[in-house]
Amino acid sequence: MRIFSIGITLLAAATVALGQTEDQVTRKLSLEECIEVALQHNLDIQIRRQSPEIARYSLRADYGAYDPTLSIGGQHQYSLSPGGLDPQGRPYVGNETEVDSFSAGFQGLTPWGMTYNLGGSVSDAYGTRPSLASDTSRPIVVTNSFQDITSGNTISYLGTNYPTVATRTSFENFSGSAGALQLRQPLLRGFMVDSARLQIYLDKKNVQISDWELRNQIITTVTAAEIAYYNLIYAQDSVRVQQKALELAERLLAENRKRVEVGAMAPLDEKQSEAQAASSRADLLAAMGSEETAQRVLKNLLSDDYSKWAKVLVQPTLALVAVPQKFDLQEAWQNGLRLRPDLVQQRLSLEKQGYIVKFSKNQILPQLDVIGTYGHAASSLDYGGLFNQFGSGDNPFWSYGAQLNMPLTQTANRNNYRSAKATKEQIALTLRQLEQGVLIQIENAIATVNTSFQRVGATREARVYAEAALEAEQKKLASGKSTSFEVLRLQRDLTTARSSEIRALADYNIALAMLAQYEGTALERRHINLDIR
C-alpha cells in the first residue's frame, strides 16, 4: 500500500500542475446544452450573423437609385452691354438688365428605366434700354432744297431740324414656365435591364448567399462542438484508463517487492515493475494534458468571453455508445446536393452571373430612347398676370420624338459580353466539380461510419480478451507458473485495448457528425430550426 499511496500523491501533484485547482467549478453539460450555448455565444457565429444584415442594408441602399431628387434654386443676374452707332451713324447707349429668377423641380429614375424631370421657373427681368428721340430744345436752321420735276429747277427754302439724341427707358417683364415635364424611355439599351436593376438583382442574391453562409457557419460550429464534446469524453475516459493502468502497475510493483523480500522473485523483476509504474505515470500525465487541451477547445467554441470559463471544468453527461444506423446512399446524395450550403451558394453565384450576361448583352444594343416634353409658358408685366396665365393654360408647349445613339464600334461591350459568358461557364463547371466532390465526400463518410462501427465491436472484443488474459496470467504468477514480465506485457495490452475501444467509440460518433455535415443535415439531426430574418 505504500507504493499505491505514492502514486495517488503523484496524481494529485499532476492535477495541480495541469491547472486543476480547488477553486475550479465543475459544470455538467449535455451535448444538447453545449450546442445551445455555442449557438448563443460562439464568436464565429456572431461574426457571421452580421453578414445577412449587412447584405440587406446594401440591398435597401440600391433602391435609393429610384429616390427623386428635389432641386430648388434662385439667382440674381446683372449685365450692362456697351453702346454704339446705328446704321445712320447715330449713337445709342447699351442695355442694363437685372434678372431675379427662381426654379424648383424634381427628377429621378423609374424601376422600368424611364427618367423624368418635372419642374417650373419664374423670372423677373428689369432695367433700362436705349431709345432715340428728337431734342426740341436745340433747333437747327437748315436749308432744304428739292428739284421740281415739272420744270427741272432746284427750289430752296429755310427749315428747322431737331437733333436725334439717345435716351434710356425703363422696362420690366415677368416670364416663366410651369409643369415642365421631360421624359426619356429607353427602348433598346437599358430597356429590360440597366445598372440600377442589375445591382438590385445581384444584391438580392447576395442576401440569399449571406443567409446560406450563416447557415454554413452554424453547421460548422455545431459539428465542431459535437466533435469537441466527444473528444473531451474520450480524453476523460483516457485519463481513467491510464489511472487503471497505473493502479495495476503499482499493485504489481507492491506484490513483486514482497516476493523479492521473501526471495520468491529476482530483483530484476522488481525493476521491471518499477519501470512499468513510471511509464504508466507518464502516460497518465500525458492523458491529463490532453484532457485539459480538450477542455479548452470545447470552451472556446462555447464562449464569447473566455475569462468566464477559465475556471470551469466541463463535465459531459453523455457516455460514449455506438448506436447502429443504416444509410441510403442515394438519399444521402440527394440531401447533400439539396442542402449543402456551399452548393447552394455556388448556384446563386451562377444565377448572378447569368444576369450579368443578360446585362452585358443588352449593352451591345444601340441606345434608342423615346423623349417627350410638356408644360405651360407665361409672360406678363406682373406676377399676378403671370400666374393667371399658368392657371388658364393658354400657352402650352410640348414635343415628342426619338433619339438614336449608336457607337460605330462595340469593342468594349462585345468583349465584356464574351467575358461574362466565359465566367458563367467557369462558375457552372466549378459547381459541377463541387457537386461531384460532395458525392464522394458523402460516400467516403458513410464508409467511415460503417468501418468505425465495426471497429467498436472489434475493439470491445479485444478489450474483453485482454482482461481475461491478464486475469489468467496474474493467477499463474501468483502460483509461480508465470513471470512478472509476461504480466506487465498483458497489462500494457489491456491498456492499449481499453484506449482503442474508447477511441473507436469516439470516432464512430464523430463520423456520424461529419456525415451529417457533409449531407447538410446537421441542424435537422439536432432538431435546430434556423429562422434567418
For the largest beta-sheet, the strand count, sense and barrel status come to: 6 strands, antiparallel
Give the termini separation.
65 Å
Low-confidence stretches: 1-19
Please, what is the average pLDDT?
86
Spell out the helices and strands N to C: HEHHEEEEEEEEHHEHHEHEHHH
The overall strand count is 12
What number of domains? 2
Radius of gyration: 48 Å
Global morphology: elongated
**What is the correct CATH architecture of the largest domain?**
Up-down Bundle
In what order do the strands lie side by side in the largest sheet? 2-5-6-9-11-12
CATH class of the largest domain: Mainly Alpha
Q: How does the helix and strand content classify structurally? A: alpha+beta
Tally of separate helices: 11
Note the beta-strand portion: 15-25%
Name given to the CATH homologous superfamily of the largest domain: Outer membrane efflux proteins (OEP)
CATH topology of the largest domain, by name, is Outer membrane efflux proteins (OEP)
